[in-house]
Amino acid sequence: MRTHTVRIHGMGAGREPQIPGTVILSSIVEFVLHRAKSSKHVQGLVGLRNLGNTCFMNSILQCLSNTKDLRDYCQQNSYRRDLSSKKCNTAIMEEFAQLLQAIWTSSANEVVSPSEFKTQIQRYAPRFMGYNQQDAQEFLRFLLDGLHNEVNRVTVKPRPSSQDLDHMPDSEKGKQMWKRYLEREDSRIVELFVGQLKSSLTCTECGYCSTVFDPFWDLSLPIAKKSASEVSLVDCMRLFTKEDVLDGDEKPTCCRCKARRRCTKKFTIQKFPKILVLHLKRFSEGRIRSGKLSTFVSFPLKDLDLREFSSESNPHASYNLYAVSNHSGTTMGGHYTAYCKNPSNGEWYTFNDSRVTAMSSSQVRSSDAYVLFYELSGPSSRM
Ligand SMILES: *[C@@H]1O[C@H](CO)[C@@H](O)[C@H](O)[C@H]1NC(C)=O
Ligand SMILES: *[C@@H]1O[C@H](CO)[C@@H](O)[C@H](O)[C@H]1NC(C)=O
C-alpha cells in the first residue's frame, strides 16, 4: 500500500515519463481518488453491533480502526508475517485483523458483529467476560497488550540486563533503556503506541538526581483545577508532570546519602510515541463506579504542542487529534461513542454502536471526551 501511494504521487507530480499506459493508469487513479473523496464511497464508515453493554468495546475498536497505520498493518496482512513463526495462541490478533478488514471492506451503513473478537479477548482477559459495562481505557490497555504479545517479534526474551547505566548522561541512558525494552518487546504495536517517560528523583539534602526511564502505552492525566469549569489539556499535562514532593512515609532512599530523604519527583517525556493516547481521569480509581468529573477539558484538534514536557531539547512533539472515545452519563449505566476522523477523507464521524453519522469537527470537544488519540504530525507539517 505504501509503495502504491508513493507511485501514485510520483505520477501526479509528472516526474515519470508519460508513456501512454501511465497516462491511462493515472487517470484511473485520479478517478478512483475522486470517488473515494465523495462520502458515498468512503470506506470504514461501518457500525459495530452492540452485543449487550459492549459500547465501551465498540468505541475503542472504532478509534483503533481509524488509526491508519494499525489499520494498514491489519489490512495488508503484514501482521501475518509476524504471526507466522508463533507457537502461542494468536487468536486476538487474527480476530482483530478480520474485524478491521470487515469494517474496511463493507459498504457504508452495513453493520459488523464483533462477537468472534469478543470471544477471544475475554479468553485472554476474563474480566471482559459477560455483558457488563466496562471502562474503555482499561479495555484499550488489555487489547493493545494482547495484540502486542501475539505479534511480538521477540520469541526468546533475553534476561534483563543488570549492567548499571547510572554513569551515562541521561539522554544516553534513555536510549540504552529503550534498546533494552525493544530487546524484549518489539512489535508494530510498540512502534506505534509506546513512548518513554523519564522520572527524575532529586534529593533535597544533597541535590543528587537519579533518573528512571519507563515505557508508557498511554498517559492518564489528572484533571486540573477541579473547581474551575473549564481547563485545557495542557493544564492537565502540567499537573501530571508537576514536581511532587515525597516526604514522610513516602521518603525514598537517596543513593548518595544512603539514607531515606525528602525528595522531589518529576516526569518528563523522553521519547514521544507516534500515537499518543491521553486518558482523562474522570473517574476515581479508573472505575466507572464513583462520581465522574464532567469538567470541560479543551484540547486542540491540530498542533498540540508538547515540547515543554520533553526531557530533551528540540524534540518533534506536535500532535493532531484523530479519534476520541466519548463517555456520556455518570455511572455504570453510561454510554460510549467514538468520534473519529476518517483517514481517507479527513472528515469526522460519530460511531454510536451500529450507527455512523457525519459530524462537524466543531462538535468534537465536549465535556464527555474521555480517551483522546493523537498522532505525531508528519515531518512536512513541521515546516
Ligand atoms: C458525547 O456525550 C454527550 C453527553 O452525553 C452527548 O450529548 C453527545 O451527543 C455525545 N457525542 C457523540 C457524538 O456521541
Ligand atoms: C446512540 O444511539 C441510541 C439509539 O441506538 C440513541 O438513543 C442515543 O441517543 C445515541 N447517542 C448518541 C450520543 O448519539
What is the chain-wise order of helices and strands?
HHEHHHHEHHHHEEEEHEEEEEEEEEEEE
Global Rg: 23 Å
Percent strand equals 15-25%
Low-pLDDT stretches = 1-19
> What profile does the largest beta sheet have?
8 strands, mixed
Kindly report the average pLDDT value. Answer: 85
Compute the number of strand runs.
18
What keywords describe this structure?
33% helix; 23% strand; binds 2-acetamido-2-deoxy-beta-D-glucopyranose; alpha+beta; globular; 383 residues; eight-stranded mixed beta sheet
Describe the protein.
The protein is α+β, with helices and mostly antiparallel strands and 383 residues long. It is 33% helix and 23% strand. The chain is built from 11 helices and 18 strands. The chain has helices at residues 2-12, 20-37, 55-65, 68-75, 78-84, 91-105, 115-124, 136-151, 170-184, 188-193, 233-241; strands at 47-48, 111-112, 195-203, 209-216, 219-221, 230-232, 244-246, 253-254, 259-260, 263-271, 275-280, 296-298, 304-305, 318-328, 335-341, 348-352, 355-359, 369-376. The strands form 5 sheets. Strands 5, 11, 13, 14, 15, 16, 17 and 18 form an 8-stranded mixed β-sheet that branches. The chain has a 4-stranded antiparallel β-sheet with strand order 4-3-10-7, with helices on one face. Strands 1-2 form a two-stranded parallel sheet. Helix 3 packs across helix 8 (136-151) and helix 6 (91-105) crosses helix 8 (136-151). It is globular, with a radius of gyration of 23 Å. The protein starts with a helix and ends in a 7-residue tail after the last strand. One 2-acetamido-2-deoxy-beta-D-glucopyranose (NAG) is lined by residues 328, 337, 352, 355. Keywords: Biological rhythms, Cytoplasm, Hydrolase, Metal-binding, Protease, Thiol protease, Ubl conjugation pathway, Zinc. This is Ubiquitin carboxyl-terminal hydrolase. InterPro entries: Papain-like_cys_pep_sf, Peptidase_C19_UCH, Ub_carboxyl-term_hydrolase, USP, USP_CS. It is an enzyme of class 3 (hydrolase). Its EC number is 3.4.19.12.
